Structures are given as C-alpha cells and as structure tokens.
C-alpha cells in the first residue's frame, strides 16, 4: 500500500506540473507545440464557443474512451488516472483563475516555463510507465495495428500542429511554437536520463573482500569480481564492478579509499541499469 501511495503521489505531482505549464504558459501565449494541448489552442481560437481548456478536456476524454475500447488491458490504470486528472486540473484552473493574457510581456521567458514544467511532468510519468493520454493514445493504437515508426509519426504530427499556428496566430507565434517543439524533444529525454542517472564503479584493489563486504552489508547491493593483473608490476589485482545511486556513490568512494588507499577507481555515469535493485526489463 505504501508503494502505491508513493507512486500515485508522484503521478499526481507530475500531472500537476504538466497542467500548470500548459494552462498558465502555453494557453495564454498560444504556443502550439503539438499534442492535444496544441490542437486545443487552435480549436479554442477558431471555435469561439469553446475555450482551449474545454477543448482539451473533450479531446482527451474522447481519446481516452477510444483507447479503453481499442486497447483494453494494454491501457494502464496509471495512464487513465493521469489523463483524467490532467484534463480536470486544467478545467478547474480555468474556472478558478481565468487567464485573459500572459503573465509577462516576455514570450521567450514564458516559452521556457511552457516547455520546462510539462517536460519534467511528462518525464516523471514516462519513467513510471504512464502518460497523460492525448496523442500518446493514438500512438499506442497505431503501434498495435501497424509497423509505423511511432516516434517519427508523433514528431511529424506535432510539427504540423505547430506550423498550423501561422494561419491562426501569425508567424511570430508559429516560430515560438516550432522552437518550443524542438526544445521539448531534447528536454524530456534529458530529464528522464537525469532521473535515472546512476554511477558505475570499476574498482581495482588488493582488498576485494573488504570492499564487497561493505557493498553487500552497508549498501545492500551486490557486485561482480573479476581477476586482473597490473601491467607494470605484474601483481594480481581484483576488479570489483558495481552500480549504485548517486547518493551512494560518494559514500562508496570514501569507504574504498579508507580500506585501500592504493585502490584505483573508474567512476562513470550511466542511466540505463536493468536488473534487480534498479529497473525491470
């Protein structure tokens, strides 16, 4: 129960970040950087009887219903939760705090927050095998029935949505939208990599038993020990290979130095560690 509570608290936080970024920064500035929010901004301007927040809710819930019908069990509860909450938060924000104009007269500054907040929120969701629905639902359906490259298809569709803003809001908004789309593509990957960033140690030591005992008993990890030999001295050495979190890396480095002051350590960054104690396949 504690695990599920923590998981859904994180999903709620990530959805809130996404919603705040979209409502307070994308909608008032008409940044159409793709996805359902981009379509909602365009339709909200063309169809005067509905606001972008209302269009966002209608489209998201419609796609969610289609996803549930077509994908069935392939549609996770986490994605349903985030999709419903995302559309609901934006709708509530519109009722509680109507936005008739942007916060500032600095569109580049607002573009930064319009991309950063949703990127962090989306990255947390993706890292937990969830999403906010929207065009992701279309991608999942296309993936199920075709062999199309989903990443390319989504990028092309987002680019078309961004370019369409030139006919509704003018060239300035269109250029900001295209810039935001390019920023989003790089930023989400960078945030996901940063969240998963770990340290990989290759420790060359003459005291492998002490080092492994610390890793097993104190860090609650395991390690791999490989035989080695010093090229210059010809003396036998052991290589201890271990991966750990960033917070543990500092303690391990300090402990190894205290146990073997002549130990040689290679420490590298890695964001893809699959196995027990880290990520499942």
Mean model confidence by pLDDT: 86
> How many strands appear in the DSSP assignment?
4
Q: What percentage of residues falls in helices of 4 or more residues? A: 55-70%
Contiguous helical run count: 10
Structural category: alpha+beta
What number of domains? 2
Order of helices and strands: HHHHHHHHEHEEHE
Going across the major beta sheet, what is the strand order?
2-3-1-4
Please give the alpha-carbon distance between the first and last residues. 23 Å
- Low-pLDDT stretches are none
- Rg from C-alpha positions? 24 Å
Major β-sheet annotation: 4 strands, antiparallel
Note the overall shape.
elongated
Taken as a percent bin, the fraction of beta residues is 5-15%
Structure explained in plain terms:
The chain is of the alpha+beta class. It has 2 domains: 194 residues, no CATH class; 74 residues, Alpha-Beta Plaits (2-Layer Sandwich), CATH 3.30.70.120. 65% of the residues lie in helices and 11% in strands. It contains 10 helices and 4 strands. It is elongated. The protein starts with a helix and ends in an 11-residue tail after the last strand.
Short description:
The chain has 281 residues and is of the alpha+beta class.
Topology (elements, then pairings):
Layout: H1 2-29, H2 35-46, H3 52-71, H4 77-96, H5 107-127, H6 135-145, H7 150-169, H8 171-196, E1 198-205, H9 208-217, E2 224-229, E3 236-245, H10 246-259, E4 264-270
Antiparallel strand pairs: 1-3, 1-4, 2-3
Helix pairs in contact: 1-4, 1-5, 2-3, 2-7, 3-4, 3-6, 5-8, 6-7, 7-8, 9-10
């Amino acid at each position: 129960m504690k695990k599920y509570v923590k998981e859904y608290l994180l999903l709620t936080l990530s959805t809130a970040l996404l919603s705040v970024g979209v409502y307070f920064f994308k909608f008032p500035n008409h940044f159409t950087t793709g996805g359902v929010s981009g379509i909602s901004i365009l339709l909200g301007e063309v169809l005067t009887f509905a606001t972008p927040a209302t269009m966002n809710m209608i489209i998201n819930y419609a796609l969610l219903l289609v996803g549930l019908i077509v994908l069935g069990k392939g549609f996770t509860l986490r994605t349903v939760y985030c999709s419903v909450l995302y559309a609901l938060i934006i709708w509530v924000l519109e009722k509680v705090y109507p936005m008739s104009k942007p916060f500032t007269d600095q569109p580049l500054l607002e573009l930064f927050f319009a991309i950063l907040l949703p990127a962090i929120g989306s990255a947390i969701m993706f890292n937990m095998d969830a999403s906010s629905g929207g065009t992701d639902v279309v991608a999942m359906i296309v993936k199920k029935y075709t062999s199309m490259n989903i990443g390319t298809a989504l990028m092309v569709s987002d680019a078309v949505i961004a370019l369409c803003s030139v006919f509704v809001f003018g060239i300035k908004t269109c250029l900001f939208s295209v810039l935001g789309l390019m920023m989003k593509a790089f930023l989400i990957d960078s945030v996901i990599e940063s969240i998963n960033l770990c340290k990989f140690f290759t420790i060359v030591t003459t005291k492998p038993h002490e080092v492994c005992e610390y890793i097993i008993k104190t860090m609650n990890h395991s390690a791999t020990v490989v035989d080695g030999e010093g090229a210059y001295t010809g003396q036998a050495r052991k290589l201890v290979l271990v991966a750990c979190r960033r917070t543990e890396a500092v303690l391990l480095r300090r402990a190894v130095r205290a146990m073997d002051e002549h130990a040689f350590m290679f420490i590298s960054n890695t964001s893809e560690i699959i196995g027990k104690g880290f990520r499942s396949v």
